[in-house]
Amino acid sequence: MSKLNPKPFTVPDCLKAKQQGRKLVVVTAYDATSTKLIDTGAVDILLVGDSLGMVIQGHSTPLPVTLDEMIYHTKAVVRARTHALVVTDLPFMSYQISTSQALENAGRILKEAGAHAVKLEGGIRSAASIQAIVEAGIPVMGHVGMTPQSVQGYGGFKVQRNREQIVEDARAVERAGAFAIVLECIPMDLAKEISETLRIPTIGIGAGPHCDGQVLVLHDLLGMYTDFRPKFVKTYADLGQVIPQAIQRYAHDVREGQFPDEEHSFK
Ligand code: KIV
């Protein structure tokens, strides 16, 4: 079991963790009830990821998710959070148009939703926006490698192997002032090289064991997202089986007159 940390986790704690060689634990969260179950002190960062477009809304990509939807879900997570740092994704086309658009929308995520930081995708192409957001006092987590908002350009969610580009992107994110960076779906030796080069912590997903931290989508970790299971996912509970079994038992009991019984009724 992880050592529980009773103090709220902060942005400077991320850098401290890397300096002390302590791995960062990150998981996605989208609603208040699951946040209460997740935020037990074992997790450092709750990521309100635009993966919610797939695991909550049922889309095949995160592209349709809107900024207002990200704010709605972040508010629910923030309401229930007690310990972990809350980082929210800027969704597709909420920051790509201009630096001022990126700054304005990052501001909405902190001001209206109460997140502690924002995450946005892209290295060199997003560096100016990252810098402007950080200069406004808003902490930014970067995201390079396989960036899901570019899925149409990749022709699917595919491992990215353009080493020079990915290294340059990661460096640009650090130079722009980000406090951490997600490395998604890249070869593990490349993730190792970037993790050893950068001062800020790297948070891997499909990037092997050498990153400074790890993130998983909650519904993957709990075996609830059954549309597809990427190679990098490890499931720690099989709610994809447990939930349908519970529903079948409930339906059986109702149909057989076994529920509700006296114990669950008022006298
Ligand atoms: O949207 C998301 O959940 C993410 C993680 C997979 C890193 O960006």
Structural notes for this entry:
- By secondary structure, the chain is of the alpha/beta class.
- It has two domains: 11-236, Alpha-Beta Barrel (TIM Barrel); 238-267, no CATH class.
- The chain is built from eleven helices and eight strands.
- The chain has an eight-stranded parallel beta barrel, surrounded by six helices.
- The protein is globular, with a radius of gyration of 20 Å.
- The termini are far apart.
- The structure holds 3-methyl-2-oxobutanoic acid (KIV).
- Residues 28, 47, 49-51, 89, 182, 184, 205, 215, 217 line the site of 3-methyl-2-oxobutanoic acid.
Layout of helices and strands, plus pairs?
Layout: H1 11-19, E1 24-28, H2 32-38, E2 45-48, H3 52-55, H4 67-80, E3 85-89, H5 99-111, E4 117-119, H6 127-135, E5 140-145, H7 151-154, H8 163-176, E6 180-184, H9 188-197, E7 202-205, E8 213-216, H10 218-221, H11 239-255
Parallel strand pairs: 1-2, 1-8, 2-3, 3-4, 4-5, 5-6, 6-7, 7-8
This protein binds 3-methyl-2-oxobutanoic acid (KIV).
